[in-house]
Structure formats: C-alpha cells, structure tokens
TrEMBL record:
This is DUF3626 domain-containing protein.
Length: 230
C-alpha cells in the first residue's frame, strides 16, 4: 500500500482474515458471480470490488472488527459506487442495497447477532486510492512506537487511533464456549503480562510457530471481549 497507494482485494494480495477462496471457482469467486450476475467472472483481480462494512452503529473500532484491529474510514464520495448486503456475502444473502436506497440498517438492527457478526457488508467498485478515497487509517494504540506506526505514517492518508483492544487472561478464561477451550489455552500461552492485544497476536503470527486459523480465533476473543477495561 505504501508503494501503490491502492487498497487491493484478496484476488490480488492472496491474503485475508477471512477465508482464502479468491480464485476462479473458489467460494469468493462464486459469491461475487452470484451477487453481480457474472459481471466480474473474467475480470482481472485489480478490477474486482474490495470489501468493507457500513459502520451504522458508529463504533470507534470500525464496523467489522472480527477482520482485524485496524480499519480505513472511507469518504462519502465512495458511497456512490458501493453496494451493500446483509448478512455477509458468504451466507448468500437475498437483501441488497445502495446508499441512496438503504433498507439494510433496520434489518440488521432487528437481527440478534453476535457482536462480531453485527455488520452490513459493503462492496466498493472501482479503484480505492488511499490519497483520494480514505479519510483516515485508524489503528490500535498497541502499535504506537512500532514499525506498524512508522509504515502507516508513510501512507498518503491521515493516521488516527481508536480506544484499543485489550483482553485479560482472567476475562478470556470466562468464555471457553465462545470459540473453544483450545483457543483459550492458546491465548493464555501467548499473553504478555496477563493480557492479549493486537500487537501480541501479530508478533505471534510472525514467528511462524502457530496456525494462522488458530490465531484468528484467539483474535476473535480479543475483538469480542477486549473492548472494555478487561
């Protein structure tokens, strides 16, 4: 992103905090084919839509923290080329909208979803340029003074900070049924000074010692239960 100043989709990067299925015939390809009537079936990766979420609850942590601790806040002009669905496209929804005819907020508000599933998916069509389309990159304060902050300062968009994710081992142990005891145990193993935050999980990921899907589920604990004083 520093080099190109562009936010790319999984079809270009091959990375995601969701499923890695962005290839011809893969689930992400199939969902897009269904939603957009085959319009992108033969399009190159850089021409495909990129994904976000509508922050209709105005959460300081972003609309969909299950996918990570940082988010880009796009400007209002991007709404003109954004489509929306509820629930997430992997659930093959039947409810769609555009910004000028938004019926999904009431639908989402009436649904009894877990906090990590409480978002309206957005698909932004066309190139997302950081210097044109982004109001701010919003980071977790655990990255202050780190290489992540240094890299963020090189992006052509303002940098902001949200209140932060931080989960104590004590609170983590109260929720073995949320994602499973094995992920609680892993979280306890990873904790530094009795706490987990995005920096701790990120450093664990870079060691290569842990399964990325396991770390993702530990992150779900932090995102779900780590936004208070726990």
């Amino acid at each position: 992103m520093v080099t190109d100043s562009v936010y790319y989709s999984q079809f270009v990067t091959g990375t995601s905090n969701g499923g890695l299925t962005a290839y011809p015939g893969g689930d992400r390809w199939r969902w897009e084919s269904r939603i957009f009537g085959g319009a992108y079936d033969t399009s190159p990766g850089h021409s495909r839509p990129v994904y976000g979420a509508l922050n209709f609850r105005r959460k300081p942590f972003g609309a969909a923290p299950r996918f990570g601790s940082a988010h880009f806040r796009l400007n209002a002009a991007t709404l003109e080329r954004t489509t929306f669905c509820y629930p997430d496209s992997y659930l093959e929804p039947s409810a769609f909208a555009v910004a000028s005819s938004m019926s999904l907020i009431e639908l989402a508000q009436a649904d009894n979803q877990d906090d990590l599933d409480d978002y309206i998916e957005a698909q932004i069509h066309g190139r997302v340029q950081l210097d044109r389309d982004v109001e701010a990159l919003v980071l977790d304060p655990s990255y202050r003074g780190t290489e992540v902050e240094a890299a963020a300062e090189r992006l052509p968009c303002p940098l902001e900070w949200h209140p932060g994710f931080r989960l104590s081992v004590t609170e983590l142990r109260r929720h073995p049924d949320y994602r499973g005891q094995r992920y609680v145990d892993l979280g306890v193993e990873l904790a530094v000074a009795g706490h987990l935050d995005p920096l701790v999980i990120g450093e664990a990921a870079r060691t290569g010692r842990y399964d990325q899907q396991d770390l993702k589920r530990v992150w779900h604990y932090v995102a779900r239960f780590g936004t208070s004083t726990t």
